[in-house]
Design a protein that fits this description.
The protein contains 13 helices and 11 strands. By secondary structure, the chain is α+β, with helices and mostly antiparallel strands. It has 2 domains: 2-36 and 304-493, Multidrug efflux transporter AcrB transmembrane fold; 43-301, Gyrase A, domain 2. The longest helix has 50 residues, at 307-356. The chain is elongated. The termini are close together.
């Protein structure tokens, strides 16, 4: 009996913890505890047009299609690092890539992240160009500050005219950079291919523009960077940090590095806002695009199901579960009532796992997998209770019948669930996007249903057998045979 009490305490604790996870976000902020997919909450959809380059002039050729595949990989990596819930990145035709981002109602941030080629270069300022650079950089620094202010304004107000102004300013910055600064710098061979790591970090108060992007080079890039900084140390000449041929930073190197240069294989680019620093770090880390792209279409999409459809789906699911619970109580009597309690516990544990699972997003196929797993959880209880009835009709005691029912049904339950998990593994391995979401929810449901059907139902049934007023055969089976030797308290203790 001590083991049954321990299991009962575990079940109550898990149920209470699940309720807290599900109810607490609703009470605190009135928001859903689940991360919803594009079909349930809407988001943004971008169509990217892959363009030819100087080296790849035909996108439809074999080399061009390889470049498109590389673009798709880089875009997918950037989106995944952005942290968007269950994004969709897929090729459309031979030269377009479709990107769907759930929950992002203002697609500007995604557009600025995905649309840049992110070709990072470190260049060395030429000797004798100090005066020209200083004069040109004064005006250019004002434009960089205006760009930063525009980005903040767009983030806060989300006005389309501000986006247009930012795009025009970006074109102007690139034009000025190519005219005034490109002739003043020499290439060093240090570019994005030499990066091992990139991340945003505060270098001051962590507010406003007090953010920097820390980068770590590979061994070759680290050696080249040390040599370059050794040549520039104390000269007043700058390191030109260029992104997509646009100068974004021009730091100087102190005289203290004149002997060995900046060693350690690391560097930092400063004076960014938090959002810009994170964006640049993602772009640097995911890599540069092998060919240019442009945003062919950028629009906000609504939930494909619609609010009414989602509500009706929820009501239909709740109605189906309620009818299953009523059937179990009417047909299987007291064991059916216990199975209904186990099924409610199963639903709570399953939904709590959806909240806890990192990166999990609830979509329509996910809901379908959850409802299907509810039916499978009931199926396990049906097998157990039918076996129990057979044992009672054979003249065994209640305790022996319940014990034999679980033991005889276990192999069937285990085999059916294992085959389902194998099918889910195949769906997850071979499928993508929504299909994987269905496989994950169904697998979770199957595993939790085994726990609730075997552990919860068994514990609750044996606990009921310890209550004399409920230890009656007609509560478990209609028209049971007359058992001359009823279940004893001692027999129950043996459980």
């Amino acid at each position: 009996m001590a083991r049954q009490r321990w299991l009962l305490g575990l079940i109550i604790s898990l149920t209470a913890a699940s309720l807290f996870l599900l109810v607490n976000p609703i009470l605190k902020s009135g928001t859903s505890p689940f991360r919803l997919g594009l079909d349930l909450q809407g988001g943004s959809q971008l169509t990217l047009q892959v363009k030819p380059s100087d080296t790849i002039k035909d996108i439809s050729s074999g080399e061009g299609q390889k470049a498109v595949a590389d673009v798709e990989r880089v875009i997918s990596d950037r989106v995944n690092r952005l942290g968007v819930s269950e994004p969709l990145v897929q090729r459309v035709g031979t030269d377009k890539i479709l990107v769907q981002l759930a929950g992002i109602k203002d697609p500007y941030e995604a557009e600025s992240l995905l649309g840049r080629s992110a070709q990072l270069e470190f260049r060395e300022q030429k000797a004798g160009s100090e005066d020209k650079f200083t004069a040109a950089f004064q005006q250019y620094r004002v434009l960089l500050a205006n760009e930063s202010d525009l980005r903040k304004k767009i983030k806060e107000l989300k006005k389309s005219e501000d986006r247009k102004a930012l795009a025009e300013l970006g074109v102007e910055l690139k034009k000025i950079s190519q005219q005034n600064f490109t002739p003043l710098f020499n290439g060093t061979g240090i570019d994005g291919r030499n990066l091992k790591e990139a991340f945003a970090q505060p270098y001051g108060s962590g507010t406003g523009d007090d953010w920097q992007v820390n980068i770590q080079f590979d061994s070759d890039g680290g050696n080249k960077f040390a040599e370059m900084t050794k040549r520039l140390a104390g000269t007043g000449r700058s390191i030109g940090v260029f992104l997509d041929d646009t100068l974004i930073s021009a730091p100087n190197v102190g005289i203290e590095f004149a002997q060995n240069g900046i060693t350690g294989g690391g560097a930092s680019i400063s004076r960014f806002t938090l959002d810009t620093a994170n964006e640049l770090a993602i772009q640097f880390k995911s890599g540069s695009l092998p060919v240019p792209i442009e945003i062919a279409e950028n629009r906000v999409v609504g939930a494909s199901l619609g609010q009414d459809s989602v509500q009706r789906s929820v009501y239909a699911g709740l109605g189906g579960i309620f009818l299953v619970l009523v059937f179990m109580v009417l047909y299987y009597r007291l064991p059916g009532a216990i199975a209904s309690v186990s099924l409610l516990i199963y639903a709570l544990l399953n939904l709590a796992c959806f909240v806890l699972l990192p990166g999990f997003v609830l979509t329509l196929p996910g809901i379908a997998g959850f409802i299907l797993s509810v039916g499978m959880a009931v199926d396990a209880n049906v097998l157990i209770f039918e076996r129990t009835r057979e044992e009672i009709l054979a003249g065994k005691t209640l305790y022996q019948s319940v014990k034999s029912g679980f033991e005889r049904a276990f192999s069937s339950i285990f085999d059916s669930n294992i085959t389902t998990i194998i099918a889910c593994a195949a769906l997850y391995w071979l499928g993508t996007g929504l299909v994987r979401g269905f496989a994950v929810t169904l697998t979770l449901g199957v595993l939790i249903s085994m726990f609730t059907a075997i552990t919860c139902s068994r514990t609750l049934l044996f606990y009921v057998l310890s209550i004399p007023s409920l230890r009656k055969a007609n509560y478990f089976c209609p028209n049971p045979p007359d058992i001359s030797k009823p279940t004893t308290t001692q027999g129950t203790e043996a459980a």
